[in-house]
Amino acid sequence: MKKIESQVNVTKVEVIDFSARVRGNYLFERISTVFESGNITLLYGPRGSGKSAFLRSFAKLNEEIYPEITYSGSILFDGKDLQSFKEQELRQLVTYLDTNYLESMDYLTLREIIHLVFGKSFKFSVEEYASTLDEFGVLKALYKFEKTPLSSLYVLEKIGLLLFISSLKLSSLLIFDCILDHLDDEHVEKVTNMLKNMAKSGKIIVISTRTLTRFLALADVLIVMNSGRFIYSGRPDEFILEGSV
């Protein structure tokens, strides 16, 4: 099966005293943490806590929303500063997905989303990737093969397709920003198993959520964020023992 090779393979992402401001107002401030390959980090916080702005920073996406944003501190990919990466290289290294992707998929076919992500020169066929598509629970939904309109897919199948594309890119850091909150309860376990398998392959996975208890069992590391600050960072079981859930 053909895959798109990442230019670099990162095993550790360090965040050091990292802050972001827009016109003097903090989106988040003085954040320090470490994400490591093979681990799944769950970032929990209410709406407006700053978690999306923080996560978009890893792919330099905040600039599209806040042209005047300024940063202090640093993000290091295996010791190399985020700012030293070319944008194309960074977008290959980091996959960031939020709920907007679920909505925009409705206007695309399978072939169109593959071309959008990898370019029109990338040769793709459902037959060639059938076994992997089946592993991600998508194959049976592709009734028109590459011409299948993605509006016909259920939420679980859309998320499965996004996970498939993420695996195809071979990104080192996968960020799922509240996108899994759209899953029905009966589908959480299936997606959880997919993510665990991706983590075992060496991915760094970060999941943000506004519904803590649904995904707590999935996490190796739990971070709780509020008002632009981390108020807890550590093992999920210790958070439970503190009586915070």
UniProtKB/TrEMBL annotation:
<dbReference type="InterPro" id="IPR003439">
    <property type="entry name" value="ABC_transporter-like_ATP-bd"/>
</dbReference>
<dbReference type="InterPro" id="IPR050086">
    <property type="entry name" value="MetN_ABC_transporter-like"/>
</dbReference>
<protein>
    <submittedName>
        <fullName>ABC transporter ATP-binding protein</fullName>
    </submittedName>
</protein>
<keyword id="KW-0067">ATP-binding</keyword>
<feature type="domain" description="ABC transporter">
    <location>
        <begin position="13"/>
        <end position="245"/>
    </location>
</feature>
<dbReference type="GO" id="GO:0005524">
    <property type="term" value="F:ATP binding"/>
</dbReference>
<dbReference type="InterPro" id="IPR027417">
    <property type="entry name" value="P-loop_NTPase"/>
</dbReference>
<keyword id="KW-0547">Nucleotide-binding</keyword>
<keyword id="KW-0813">Transport</keyword>
<dbReference type="Pfam" id="PF00005">
    <property type="entry name" value="ABC_tran"/>
</dbReference>
<comment type="similarity">
    <text>Belongs to the ABC transporter superfamily.</text>
</comment>
<dbReference type="GO" id="GO:0016887">
    <property type="term" value="F:ATP hydrolysis activity"/>
</dbReference>
